[in-house]
Design goal:
Oligomer: single chain
Bound molecules: S-adenosylmethionine
Number of domains: 1
Number of helices: 8
Number of strands: 7
CATH architecture: 3-Layer(aba) Sandwich
Distance between the termini: 38 Å
Shape: globular
Helix content: 25-40%
CATH superfamily: Vaccinia Virus protein VP39
CATH class: Alpha Beta
Mean pLDDT: 96
Strand order of the largest sheet: 3-2-1-4-5-7-6
Largest sheet: 7 strands, mixed
CATH topology: Rossmann fold
Strand content: 15-25%
Length: 236
């Protein structure tokens, strides 16, 4: 229950309806390929991922990236607020030989990093669960987990267009992305729910927050729809 005297956000209450839906968590990996091998290569090329590295994956979900990272680094901390998503990750760990993944039930605003500073903080399609003010707080917390020169790899639904284009862009994105049913991908209702009920923001709001949190924006890429952004951010 939320403490009425506390002003700190109860991030579990913002974690997304679908992440406490058992069926959704079971079909998640079939719907969503996190592209982990390419992400691993990118971080290796950036010089921050290798046999001695520590990685913190915030909003790890079913751990697609965390498991791939664990195969090439020393320590992975896989963090999420949704017990059912973590249950899927634990099932995979139980049937793997990996022994360097710590699963932590916490979130952007509550995870307390212990041990040596991270070389990589990774977060994919999760930060949009927090409203803007809390995204800024979360980004500062991520910076504090990293060593100087360490990297935040951040991917999310972030809007790289002007407010007057919103209706046209969002409708075009839904039309080209939507699947007929929840098993085949993301339905119109799921995509609409994202825009309506979650907190994706504009690139031109998020990027100053990233810099203000203590990062240099080494790279920013936007997809053609203007709906997805990927950042490589260096801890100053
Ligand atoms: C769309 S899934 C992405 C999972 C994974 N990163 C991937 O790329 O496949 C979003 C995840 O963010 C988690 N999440 C939501 N709010 C969070 C918070 N405040 N802190 C950490 N994780 C959060 C959800 O529980 C969910 O597992």
């Amino acid at each position: 229950m939320t403490d009425p005297d506390s002003w700190w956000l109860d991030e579990r209450a913002y974690a997304g309806r679908e992440h406490s839906d058992e069926q959704h968590t079971r079909r998640y990996d079939a719907k969503m390929d996190a592209g982990a091998p390419a992400e691993i290569r990118l971080l290796e090329e950036a010089g921050v991922l290798g046999p001695d590295s520590t990685v913190v994956d915030l909003g790890t979900g079913t751990g697609q990236f965390a498991l791939a990272a664990a195969a090439v680094c020393a320590r992975v901390v896989a963090v999420d607020v949704a017990p059912l998503m973590l249950a899927r990750l634990r099932e995979k760990l139980d049937s793997s030989t990996l022994s360097n993944v710590e699963v932590v039930s916490a979130g952007f605003l509550t995870y307390e990093h212990v041990g040596g500073p991270a070389d990589v903080v990774y977060s994919r399609f999760a930060l949009h669960h927090l409203p803007d003010f809390w995204q800024a707080i979360a980004l500062r917390r991520m910076a504090e987990m990293l060593r100087p020169g360490g990297v935040l790899r951040l991917s999310d639904v972030v809007y790289s267009f002007e407010p007057e284009d919103a209706e046209r862009r969002i409708e075009a994105w839904i039309a080209e992305t939507m699947a007929a049913d929840v098993d085949g991908g993301w339905t119109r209702a799921e995509l609409a729910e994202h825009v309506r009920d979650e907190h994706s923001t504009f690139t031109w709001l998020l990027e100053p927050m990233i810099e203000r949190a203590g990062f240099d924006l080494a790279d920013a890429t936007y997809d053609d729809s203007g709906m997805l952004a990927q950042y490589l951010c260096r801890r100053r």
